[in-house]
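Contributing: when you submit paired examples, paste them exactly as shown. First protein:
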Amino acid sequence: MSSAAAWMEPSLDVDKLSYEIFSILESKFLFGYDDHKVFLPSTPATPVAAGLRHSSVGKVRILSIDAADGILAGAALVRLEATLRKQSGDTTARVSDFFDLAAGSGAGGVLAALLFTRGPDGRPLFSAAEALRLLAKHRRRLASGAQRKGLLGGILCRSGGLLRRVFGDATLRDTLKPVLIPCYDLATGAPFVFSRADAVEADGYDFLMEEVCAATCADAAAGAAAVEMRSVDGRTRIRAVGGGLAMGNPTAAAITHVLNNRIEFPAATGVEDLLVVSLGGAEAPAAPGKPAAPLSAEALARIAGGAQADVVRTHPSP
């Protein structure tokens, strides 16, 4: 895998208003929570049982990033990471050190992948500041042509290029913590969630991170072609369109995963055992306009409606 520093610009100015907005997040997550154990890093992901390990300190901490503006979410994470470093006293701490699971859709899925994929040194591939600089530096390039409606369209909707240089041969198994990144599979007509837990259990569910990011960012409403991809063993084929269409807010999927996964999270028996930080607008998908072939407006509406129904059916009752 390539060094993250090679893709960075020296600095990036985030406007003052953004920092004021994200200070609200900071106060809610850090100072509105009275358990000081939140500042302790979660348990390192050392292989046990099926190659997984749960956090043994406090609540299960979930980071969920919507399929919204990656720059705004990235700026929030930069501020959060800086404050976590200050509060914990660890100047090298990363966002992934303080969360037990990350879920992201669309641009949020790319951020989750950047922050939770293991780098050559065994630490996260990117810090929050590095991830934000990457998105800002390549913003125009990544949102070119017909994909300009989506921040991470264009080249991110194809395998190779920038994604290949960033992630190299890393797969879902190479994440430091459990990660969930959704897309919609046109082959099966149902949402598909890329999951580290599934990847560890079977080769047929392990995919290259570059293709996972391309799949969750494929904006069918803006005319992007579906992403054709296979698992690393070639057994599972997916024809993916974006996670934002199927699951714009992946928080429900993350909560369901934790509460129904006794191998990774045996101590989580109810929502009171969870601490969730959700970034994004959490808005339902907008009514699609006339997209480029092969998907019609009716097909997009059917996908969005069916996907949301699937999410409701899998969400546990209170």
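Second protein:
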Amino acid sequence: MNTIPDEPRRALVVGATGISGQTICRQLVEAGWTTYGLSRQTSLPVDGVEVVTADLLDAEGMRDALRGTRPEAVFFTAWMMQDSEAKNIEVNTATLRNTFDALAEEKSVKHVALMTGLKHYLGPFDDYGTSVSAETPFHEDEPRLDAPNFYYAQEDELFAGAERLGFTWSVHRAHTIFGYAVGNAMNMALTLSVYATICRETDQPFIFPGSETQWDGLTDVTDAGLLAEQMIWAATDEKGANEAFNIANGDVFRWRWLWPQIAEMFGVEPVGFEDEPRPLDARMGDAAETWKTIADKHGLIESDVTRLASWWHTDGDLGRDLECLTDMTKSKKAGFLGFRSTPDSFAEQVERYRAEKIIP
């Protein structure tokens, strides 16, 4: 008897050019999924992904672009930073709503996995870290803070979409993400790599830019590959349905322990916290011209340092004056047992950026 092969599973990755989106695309393609990557760009960095070019704020354009994709799983990693939290809420809920509306007619969606982050516990950019009430490590059942927060608004939009269209959902609260991407607004691994490279090329010490609390206290981070694994697991395992999960590497560390290890990767002298924070944004005024010289000297493919380093974001994370780490018990109890070594994760990103001629 002839049998018809099963059709490959179909997925849509919204934000396919970002740190998280690229990694999810890569894992889906490797697992044999028919994968659509939605972006405003006309080409994508991951081979094997079907390009869907659309503006998330153009509802009609989204319907046209997504017609016929019929994904069973949607992975939402995109966000658009605005000038105020009110505008963040308006824009970043519209992106979800427009996606759901565009996919509603074909009724294919079974699960939507939404990536958010620890501003769920720390508060939005407008009120960051000032009203934290949760004990560390943060747990998923902590009540929402009494302040507008686009992560909360996105969750509510997700819940409404699930009720309307009948899909299951999951929310994935990542900490600072170590991964590979260029042109990303929040990229600590590449920012620190660029900073360390500038220090080496200009014979300057590698000075920790953050607070005493971050230097001495415990923290954690999230490897992009681990985040992708958890999001795909939640989309395909019933124990991941209709739940919010923290996602961090599973180890904890102090920056005073990791900083010398990063310095060794670049051959620079590590200098720790001394008296007060020394933010990168205030010290990198010459970085643009310096990086052009470095890029020319080493034949790098990107000479625009603003596409590589997000000084403000790294300053924000390393400058926090409160302990910040998450609990992974809920995820483990549900059956997701993935983990990463943070030093290995950072080293892997450095190796790839070097291999791709992003850094020397």
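If you have annotations for the second protein, write them as plain sentences, like these:
The chain has 14 helices and 13 strands.
Residues 6 and 198 are 52 Å apart (CA to CA).
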